[in-house]
Amino acid sequence: MSRAFDILVVGAGPAGIAAAVTAAECGLSVGVVDDNPAPGGQIWRNGAHLPASARRWKMRFEAAPLVRLQGWRIVDRPQPGTVRAQSNDAEFAPDAAARDGADLHYRQLILATGARERFLPFPGWTLPNVIGAGGLDAMVRGGLPIAGRRVVVAGTGPLLLAVAAHLASRGATIAAICEQASAAQIAPLMLNLITQPGKLWQGASYRWATRNSRYLTRCWPVAARGDERLRSVILQRDGKQWTVNCDFLACGFHLVPNTELAALLGCSLDNGFVSAGELMQTSVPGIWCAGEPTGIGGVELSLLEGQIAGLAAAGKTQAAQKLARRRRGALSFVRALGRACRLDSQLRHLAAPETIVCRCEDVPLHALRVHTGWRDAKLHTRCGMGPCQGRICGGATEFLFGWRAGSVRPPLFPALVSTLGGTQAPVVTTSPEETL
Question: Which residues, 6 or more positions from 297, have their beta carbon under 8 angstroms from its beta carbon?
Fold first, then answer.
């Protein structure tokens, strides 16, 4: 299967939705490929409790003349101007055409691949019910019963309060909210929010929703305890440790941008983020990037960058430049948030020698310490070579050892041999409003 678009958008979170809608409303043929079964990404999934602005964007997305490939992943780049996608259900597809995937051709490409949580290893972090903060939030939105369960939320970043507030609204007892940053480290971010009353009000509403829970700065989990599942967590603050009984530990140490596809396409990275100009153009002509891969800045900035990228890719440069001026002012929040979420060096010493770091390949910390870099560790221990392709252990080893992944090679995700070995099919120009 082969399809051609004026503009292809990868990712259907807030940035991707804004980019796709903006470009489609300019009259161009636009395709959107996203690995979730429905649009919205992690932040706007299951829209029963979405803010009004989010509902409006999703309605525009549903009404726009788009070709939607929901539940598909980009796994390869067979040639310039083409990416290869595979359905998440390809293994069980009844016909060979579906198993062979789809070659998606584009004149302009907009990357809106979002971000994922950073996990840090500590004793017991592989126990059942020790889950990423965003992961637990997504599971509850998907129907996991949480009412009456005791939850400790720990890590760093604004996501902690947002998750705690949502879990509390579903009936969970939030035993503690543990922010690893100090109050002094967070204070400049709070000052920055004075100029952004919307964010300030949102944060205040989250804290009000969790007012019966302890919010502790310079606090983090040092161990999780349990048998067949989590029973308690040991917390540490200013050198003192205590045990909290809980049913879930929701733990995430800020976000890591999803830059693997950008790297495969040859886009330049700067300090782990995709380098993008004021109109969201990357170092590769015809490729644009918006949202968290360019800098962790929240929903409003992602929407703004998505619109800029959509307009610029559609050739509406003047309209894009007007929005770019608004973006410049919002970048101060990105820098303030990065400083506020800077990880404490003490977190490097949480894991014991036998603590698993690479969960896919069961590689413990002591097996990694003897190596000099990411490539060396991969060759000798298979760290980063499992199904997640280093998306979990990569962020951990970057913090623990300062390692950075080298070159990115296809497939970006586990893929069928039939998909990777597929030959070029005749190009099909698809009609709008098609969903696969």
Answer: 330, 331, 333, 334, 337
Q: Is residue 407 part of a domain?
A: no
182 and 136 share one domain: yes
**Shared-domain flag, residues 230 and 269:** no
**Residues 132, 242: one domain?**
yes
Average confidence (pLDDT) over 283-310 = 96
CB contact set of 409 (below 8 Å; sequence gap of 6+): 264
Reduced to 3 states (helix: H, G, I; strand: E, B; else coil), residue 337 is: helix
For 155, half-sphere exposure in the C-beta direction (CA atoms, 13 angstrom radius) is 27
Cis peptide before 197 (omega within 30 of 0): no
Which residues span the domain enclosing 352?
345-401
Tokens for 44? 């706007």
Task: Report residue 364: phi and psi, to 5°.
Answer: -85, 165
pLDDT at 426: 46
Rounded average pLDDT over 259-288: 97
User: Are 124 and 198 contained in the same domain?
Assistant: yes
End-to-end CA distance of the chain: 12
User: Residues 334, 262, 278, 28: is their CA dihedral positive or negative?
Assistant: negative
Of 225, 253, 281, the one marking the end of a domain is 253
Q: Which of 253, 273, 297 is the last residue of a domain?
A: 253
As a whole number of angstroms, the distance between CA 354 and CA 367 comes to 9
Residue-wise pLDDT tens digits, 33-51: 999 988 988 888 765 667 8
Say whether pTM exceeds 0.90: yes
d(CA 171, CA 241): 28
